[in-house]
Automatic annotation (TrEMBL):
Species, as recorded: Actinoplanes auranticolor
Protein name from the UniProt record: fumarylacetoacetase
The keyword Magnesium appears for this protein: yes
Domain Fumarylacetoacetase-like C-terminal: 112-395
Protein residues bound to Mg(2+): D219, K239, T243
């Protein structure tokens, strides 16, 4: 049973794309409790000037429309829901969530994955590079990341085929075959709306103008393929076979009460990353990772060393442009305590300490048929909980 409740109350209002059996067009929806508001006809009826922004069939147009439109659409929704007479007129455009199929919510442009949790980076450093300093010399000077594969970002619920690849066994033999160390990474994803021109870095304050909202990310990782291939250019096929994202994108506007100061920095930051005078963009998101229904971890993002604003500033510091639909993820979220680690390689300490599940089975890495569900919530104003929904995926045998 899940203990993280992920309600989509009127303080959350996340955006997604859905269809139903009776109307198979993909269209933009807003989740409200266990209902989905079909946004285009509702806006057409009550505020037609904004209708083009939510026309669908994806969130792309809304993302590109920029922060003024984002606030206008959210204000409309909040106003409608507070006004009983309007809520009644919305009735015909509300669909029970259980009747909806949820799709990939936006066209993923570029996909970047960071490495922003000090605890995760320390744990992985110990396992991948024993005998060396777990944190590389650059780690506290810049948010480390790599470019992933946008075309293999998939909607929650998509089955994940166990990848095959090259790996080196303990005997030194190089073989090709199904990954034997298939893992998860529980992460937060930042969805870029407003593009930026080539040659023009986005500063820390630009975060709110360019980033529309957040989703949950499971960056599936084949540790055996990764360990053999990653020197010197970083992750490649060990992470490019599939990355799952949650169907609902929660706007930054819903996360005001979840903002927290990041941990004290132990190394002075260069000016473009120095957020000591800026309003903080650390986020207190509480995740829960379930394997076949059993909770195996409860990571929290409030201790992440690097914030989403710093990641964006670094990502564009060389003048790289942003496109609508760019997705960048935080990197695995791991806390101080063992029960807060966001990957199986950490939870089973490189496979040496198998996890014992309540159904009597044990796991180091994923078995075929295993299902992973990552859900999350964040604090809202006045004790309200902001749900981030969930991202789900089941492992299918290698082909
Ligand atoms: O330290 C390494 O060599 C590898 C690290 C990762 O696998 C982490 C990664 O993909 C980024 C992250 O999720 O934190
Ligand atoms: Ca990752
Ligand atoms: Mg991936």
């Amino acid at each position: 049973m899940s203990t993280v409740s992920t309600p989509f109350g009127v303080a959350t209002l996340p955006y997604g794309v859905f269809s139903t059996a009776s109307d198979q067009r993909a269209r933009v929806g807003v989740a409200i409790d266990d209902l989905i508001l079909d946004l285009a006809p509702a806006v057409q009826l009550l505020a037609p000037a904004l209708a083009p922004a939510v026309a669908g069939p994806s969130l792309d147009t809304l993302l590109a429309a920029g922060p003024q439109t984002w606030s206008q659409v959210r204000a409309l929704l909040t106003g409608w829901l507070a006004d009983g007479t309007v809520s009644e007129r919305l009735g015909p455009h509300l669909v029970p969530a259980r009747d909806a199929v949820l799709h990939l919510p936006f066209t993923v442009a570029d996909y970047v994955d960071f490495y922003a949790s000090e605890q995760h980076a320390t744990n992985l450093g110990k396992m991948f590079r024993p005998g060396q300093d777990p944190l590389t010399p650059n780690w506290k000077h810049l948010p480390i990341g790599y470019h992933g594969r946008a075309g293999t970002v998939v909607a929650s619920g998509t089955d994940i085929v166990r990848p095959c690849g090259q790996r080196r066994g303990t005997d030194g033999d190089i073989t090709f075959g199904p990954s034997q160390r298939l893992d998860i990474e529980a992460e937060l994803g930042f969805v870029v709306g407003t593009p930026s021109p080539l040659g023009r870095p986005v500063d820390l304050a630009g975060f709110e103008r360019h980033v529309f909202g957040v989703c949950l990310v499971n960056d599936w990782s084949a540790r055996d393929i990764q360990a053999w291939e990653y020197v010197p250019l970083g992750p490649f096929l060990g992470k490019s076979f599939a990355t799952s994202i949650s169907p609902w994108v929660v706007p930054l506007a819903a996360l005001g009460s979840a903002r927290v100061p990041p941990p004290a920095r132990t190394v002075p930051l260069l000016p473009y990353l120095d957020d000591s005078q800026a309003p903080p963009w650390g986020l207190d998101v509480r995740l829960e990772v379930r394997l076949n229904g059993h909770v195996v971890s409860r990571p929290r993002s409030d201790g992440m060393y690097w914030t989403g604003a710093q990641m964006l500033a670094h990502l564009t510091a060389n003048g790289a442009s942003l496109r609508t639909g760019d997705l960048y993820a935080s990197g695995t979220i791991s806390g101080e305590r063992p029960g807060e680690r966001g990957s199986l390689i950490e939870l089973s300490w490189g496979g040496t300490e198998p996890l014992r599940l309540p159904d009597g089975t044990t796991r180091t890495f994923l078995d075929d048929g295993d299902e992973i569900v990552i859900s999350a919530s964040a604090p809202g104003a006045d004790g309200v909980v902001i749900g981030l929904g969930e991202v789900r995926g089941r492992i299918r045998p290698a082909i």
